[in-house]
Amino acid sequence: MEARESALTRRSFLQGMSVAALGATAGVSLFGCGTNDTTDSAAGASTGAGTAADPIWDVEALAEPSETIQADVCVIGAGGTGCAAALEAAEAGLTVVQLEKMGVFGGSFIGTEGMFGVETHWTKEAGETLTIAEAVQNCMIYHHWWPDHALYENFFSQTAETVLWLEEHNVNYRSVVALGISHQSWHVYEIDGEHGPGVLFMKKLSEAVEKAGVTTLFKTPAKKLVMEGGKVAGVLAVKEDGSVLKVSAPVVVIGTGGYANNDDIIYDIAPAHNEHIVALGMNGRDGDGLKMAKDAGADFCDFPGTVMWCGPVIIGAGWTSNAYSASVQPILWVNQDAKRFVNENLWIDDFVAAGIALNNQKKGYIVFTDADLTAWETVGPYGQVFSFGIPGTPLPEVRKEMESLDSVHKADTIEDLAAAVGLDAAALKATIDTYNGYVKAGKDAEFGKPAQFLYPVETGPFYIGELSNGFYTTVGGIRINENAQVLDAERNVIPGLYAGGSDAGGLYGDSYDVSRAPGSQASFAINSGRLAAKHAKEYLGA
Q1: CA dihedral (433, 436, 438, 441) positive or negative
Q2: 23: domain CATH number?
Q3: Residue 348 domain-assigned?
Q4: Distance, CA of 504 to CA of 507 (rounded, Å)
């Protein structure tokens, strides 16, 4: 990551990267400069938010500031949430200072490909009839009414305006589509042949931020909120030379991208059960915003540990690789007991549901044959994998990639296959025999997998791949109200403090809602930033 970042200027945005290199999915934070794979047991995981004395929540002790600058608004983060907030605030006539710990604009938003919108001009032109009220109700029911209904109303009621607002700033779309079983509401960003969709999106958005006169300080991580009289009064940050900077501001917007790269926080507050998990996305999502907010007295939402699980990733497989596409194919999946645990085509319809199913296993494996490899490398995957694994388009490197991974094992017999990963041979053979019976009958009597996805495991050589459970981002965090204002444990507003995107919780229950509102997290990143800035203008009386 360091080498890549050092080669970038503020405006370069990973130029030349293709869509396939940058990834494509409904949420934020998808492709990575590396992944975080952990083999620690999650037995100690809880759904609480730790305690004030827990060292994982400590904020860094700082020297006295050597420099102070003034602003109406200090925005922490230069990703989707931060840039949306900064631009909205600047165009409202407020002076804005934006702090970013990395060396470029973009954050984890550069890995997104589309965002949710309802009653937009795109959906209307496509004939999609989903209304704001229906979308809100769908999501509230899906999340068992844990979220804040008023937050959903404010968010969804703004998405059509936000699409126009972005287009006015030269941030464009190319289509609106369904994702899996969702409504036709996923607004896919434009591409230009040079940039990935999320990269191009953030390139255009950050150009608008610069044009609006926002002061953005790169490689200047925010470390602590300044509180005075129960109100936020600014931010302490560390400059590249190690000196401490104070941004004195009556409004602070937190948008640091969540905590996906911080395993300590994940295992503290997220119900992570699988022994192997892997964050797919940009590095740097370390929980900075949550730590600062907690230190300032903020509360966390009811599901602070909600993670956007996305299901099988063969250990070692890179994002957008042929091996990744193979990881999620609707072949045979088994757990640590050599038993099936889900209808394996679930990933195609709802990747979050597939991820949850895998999360509930201690370990996961995929079982396939040489015939499957041949089909993938010559014809293409059985089921579509975002924009980089398309049925009918061959995966020419899949065999080479799979056979190069230590996590993929090849054997001539099922017994040897089981021995390679320590599974019970008799149990694995029984599972495969039963499964092959379903294939011959054309009916999965156990999980109801459609006949079109019933592929036999009969003729060797056989393969088994050890799986991580992948996740794109965390989607739980700081408790906010419908205006993106941060709340304390008594549900009182902390004046002047706002949070959005993956730092803010309360939009979801125990899971992401790709089947109801595809791209809701990417959309929330932009819309929560705008909601925060709009309310900040009122708060300041500007």
Answers
A1: negative
A2: 3.50.50.60
A3: yes
A4: 8
Domain with 314 in it: 307-470
User: Do 35 and 99 belong together in one domain?
Assistant: yes
Q: How far apart are CA 15 and CA 8, in angstroms?
A: 9
Boundary (domain end) residue, out of 420, 445, 470: 470
CB of 323 within 8 A of CB of 405?
yes
Answer yes or no: is pLDDT of 502 > 80. Answer: yes
Alpha-carbon span 225 to 100, nearest angstrom: 15
Residue 177 confidence (pLDDT) above 50:
yes
H helices of 106-226, in order, are: 121-126, 132-142, 149-168, 197-211
How many angstroms from the chain centroid is the CA of residue 533? 23
Q: How far apart are CA 109 and CA 27, in angstroms?
A: 9
Among the listed residues 256, 282, 288, 260, the one whose alpha carbon sits nearest the alpha carbon of residue 85 = 256
- Residue ending a domain, among 410, 442, 470, is 470
For residue 490, is it left (φ>0), alpha (ψ between -120 and 50) or beta? alpha
Q: Which region holds residue 416: left if phi is over 0, alpha if psi is between -120 and 50, else beta?
A: alpha
**Each residue of 68-102: pLDDT tens digit?**
999 999 999 999 999 999 999 999 999 999 999 99
Task: Give the pLDDT confidence of 121-159 residue by residue, as tens digits.
Answer: 999 999 999 999 999 999 999 999 999 999 999 999 999
| 291 lies in the same domain as 413 | no
Distance from C-alpha of 467 to C-alpha of 458, rounded to nearest angstrom? 22
**DSSP sequence for 25-58:** -SSS----SS--EE-S--TT--SS---TT-GGGP
Residues 411 and 394 in one domain: yes
Q: Is residue 50 part of a domain?
A: no
